[in-house]
């Protein structure tokens, strides 16, 4: 892609993000969200993509649905996809959302009783350059509550891996402890969460759609048996296993 073509695409995507950003709801909207025990929450989804080694175009898009609170597998969908949009930093959602949305829509059409009531996304939500990451994009287009859970810190809007940040991580004493990710503007865009007593490296939680940050944080922690919440961990494991089985010489 030429530089001019990429610049035009970036302008187009920025405009689309700005428009879709207006539709994000960063408050609790569902009955099950109104109590810390989440009464009525029965199905939690997780999505992830795993790529064939050395190939940034062909990937396994994975959707899992787990029971809540037991976190047992109810449904899984592994599908090979070919990503057509180029990778441009800050616009990952334009590559990955279409195939993840297709998996959710297929489930809604074929087995609507298994459609997740909330989806945990391996990526960011409002904690993003323009406050519209993958979890927001998927949430707005699917209409489902979504939570962004990133394994690594996106250094954005003044949040960096500074000494202060490392000190805040060290201050997290037990699973469930957290601290805010505050932008230079003063706006809290997410929280760093120590997800289990045994894991000292946090995950980064942010609102995707139709959920408040406090509820997103509490839900994420309640879904953690290990560092990464179980819906995302299962999606990651199963997509990698699919590639190992079907592409044994090329799986990453």
UniProtKB/TrEMBL annotation:
Keyword terms of this UniProt record: Cytoplasm, DNA-binding, Endonuclease, Hydrolase, Magnesium, Metal-binding, Nuclease, Nucleus, RNA-binding
Task: State where it is primarily located.
Answer: cytoplasm
Q: What is the annotated signal peptide range for this record?
A: none
Q: Which domain of life is it from?
A: Eukaryota
* Cellular localisation: Cytoplasm, Stress granule; Nucleus, Nucleolus
Function, as annotated, reads:
Endoribonuclease that specifically cleaves inosine-containing RNAs: cleaves RNA at the second phosphodiester bond 3' to inosine. Active against both single-stranded and double-stranded RNAs. Has strong preference for single-stranded RNAs (ssRNAs) toward double-stranded RNAs (dsRNAs). Cleaves mRNAs and tRNAs containing inosine. Also able to cleave structure-specific dsRNA substrates containing the specific sites 5'-IIUI-3' and 5'-UIUU-3'.
Q: Which family does it belong to?
A: Belongs to the endonuclease V family.
Subunit composition and interactions: Monomer. Interacts with PABPC1; the interaction is RNA-dependent and stimulates ENDOV activity.
Which PANTHER family does the entry mention? ENDONUCLEASE V
Q: Protein name, please?
A: Endonuclease V
């Amino acid at each position: 892609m030429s530089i001019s073509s990429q610049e035009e695409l970036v302008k187009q995507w920025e405009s689309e993000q700005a428009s879709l950003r207006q539709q994000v709801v960063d408050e609790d909207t569902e009955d099950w969200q109104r109590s810390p025990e989440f009464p009525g929450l029965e199905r939690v989804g997780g999505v992830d993509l795993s790529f064939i080694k050395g190939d940034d175009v062909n990937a396994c898009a994975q959707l899992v649905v787990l029971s809540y609170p037991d976190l047992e597998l109810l449904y899984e969908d592994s599908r090979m996809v070919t990503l057509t949009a180029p990778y441009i930093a800050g616009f990952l959602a334009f590559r990955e959302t279409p195939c993840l949305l297709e998996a959710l829509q297929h489930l809604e059409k074929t087995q609507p009783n298994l459609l997740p009531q909330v989806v945990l996304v391996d990526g960011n939500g409002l904690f993003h350059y323009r406050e519209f990451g993958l979890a927001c994009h998927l949430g707005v287009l699917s209409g489902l509550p979504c939570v962004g859970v990133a394994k690594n810190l996106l250094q954005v809007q003044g949040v960096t891996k500074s000494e202060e940040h490392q000190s805040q991580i060290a201050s997290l004493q037990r699973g469930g402890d957290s601290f805010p990710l505050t932008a230079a503007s003063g706006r809290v865009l997410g929280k760093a969460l120590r997800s289990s007593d045994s894991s000292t490296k946090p995950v980064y939680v942010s609102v995707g759609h139709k959920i408040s940050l406090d509820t997103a944080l509490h839900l994420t922690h309640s879904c953690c048996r290990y560092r990464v919440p179980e819906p995302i961990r299962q999606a990651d494991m199963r997509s990698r296993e699919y590639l190992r089985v079907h592409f044994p010489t090329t799986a990453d």
